[in-house]
Design goal:
There is one protein chain. The protein is an alpha/beta fold and 261 residues long. Helix 5 packs across helix 6 (146-158). The protein has helices at residues 43-50, 73-76, 85-89, 97-102, 118-130, 146-158, 176-191, 229-232, 235-242; strands at 5-14, 17-27, 32-36, 58-63, 66-67, 80-83, 164-168, 197-201, 214-219, 222-228, 246-251, 254-259. The strands form 3 sheets. A 6-stranded mixed sheet has the order 6-7-8-3-9-10, with helices on both faces. The chain has a domain at 5-64 and 163-259: Rossmann fold (3-Layer(aba) Sandwich). The protein has 9 helices and 12 strands. The chain binds adenosine-5'-triphosphate and magnesium ion. Adenosine-5'-triphosphate is lined by residues 14, 17, 19, 37, 39-45. Keywords: ATP-binding, Nucleotide-binding, Transport. One of its GO terms (molecular function) is ATP hydrolysis activity. It comes from Nesterenkonia alkaliphila.
């Protein structure tokens, strides 16, 4: 079985800065990865590559069996669900929550003259309901609360029934109850047998949903460690990644970390 994502020696350079430096790792079908790392470590850059929105300066990136640079990314992108600030910022504020989800079927963010099938509309509505935001279907995206927006964005990311789901800080800006609900919803989603391979970027270990299988730690564009959760998410690796002595705490499949006193 070929990997869902296969990065080999991926480097991204902007001017003199290396956003990613010689990063290699693979994601296999059925795996759920968490990416952790300080601000500016290159996490979003990595997701941009995984979503076919950015090509490596050197190295190779294969996404869903296609090599970036040798494939029409417009054919590849509908196979990948992306929830990120960049996508949210490109959604016109007046667009309704329903259209925000529906337009993903065409890989666009604003509704224009496309004709959508009843089936697509039903699917978009069903996804809004499944993510607890069915009641705001006709509200402009700009009037939604942060938590509602996050749920609408995840519904949008799932609209094309993607083979790879990429979530960049989906819990940012949520209150405690909202975060806990989101963590449960994502955990349920990945528990489903046919769930897409999923990658979640977060700053907070509390946001790692139970059921995630692997972790990748990035610091300053470089991979500190990548592998199965149990052996890779350790106090030592976290301390090295964040350059602070940290102690990992695990409780019933949930995680947290504190500075060692
Ligand atoms: N076009 C660019 N030119 C120069 N530097 C850039 C460019 N785009 C991004 N960077 C820098 O690359 C680094 C990595 O950015 P990236 O957005 O991938 O980090 P991140 O790990 O997602 O950070 P955060 O946790 O703050 O979201 C940052 O220092 C950023 O300022
Ligand atoms: Mg980021």
């Amino acid at each position: 079985m070929s990997p869902v994502l296969n990065l080999q020696g991926v480097t991204v350079r902007r001017g003199r800065k290396l956003l990613l430096n010689n990063v290699s790792f693979q994601i296999q079908e059925g795996q759920r990865w968490v990416i952790l790392g300080p601000n500016g470590a290159g996490k979003t850059t990595l997701l941009q590559i995984a979503s076919g929105r950015l090509f490596p300066t050197t190295g190779t990136a294969q996404v869903l069996d296609e090599t970036l640079g040798a494939v029409d990314v417009f054919e590849l992108r509908p196979r990948i669900g992306l929830c990120s600030n960049a996508v949210a910022n490109s959604i016109p504020g007046h667009e309704t929550a329903l259209n925000t989800v529906l337009t993903a079927a065409y890989g666009v963010t604003g509704r224009w003259r496309e004709q959508y099938e009843r089936l697509d509309e039903r699917r978009a509505f069903g996804l809004l309901n499944a993510w607890g935001v069915g009641t705001v279907f006709d509200r402009p995206f700009s009037t939604l609360s942060e938590g509602e927006r996050k749920r609408v964005q995840i519904a949008r990311a799932l609209m094309t029934d993607p083979e790879l789901l990429l979530l960049d800080e989906p819990g940012a800006g949520l209150d405690l109850a909202g975060r806990e609900e989101l963590v449960s919803s994502i955990s349920e989603l990945v528990d489903w047998e046919d769930a897409p391979a999923t990658v979640l970027v977060t700053h907070h270990l509390e946001e790692i949903p139970p059921g995630f299988t692997h972790v990748l730690l990035l610091r300053d564009g470089e991979l500190v460690a990548a592998g199965p959760m149990g052996e890779t998410l350790t106090s030592e690796n976290l301390s090295e990644t964040f350059e602070v002595p940290l102690e990992l705490v695990e409780r019933e499949g949930r995680y947290s970390a504190f500075k060692k006193s």
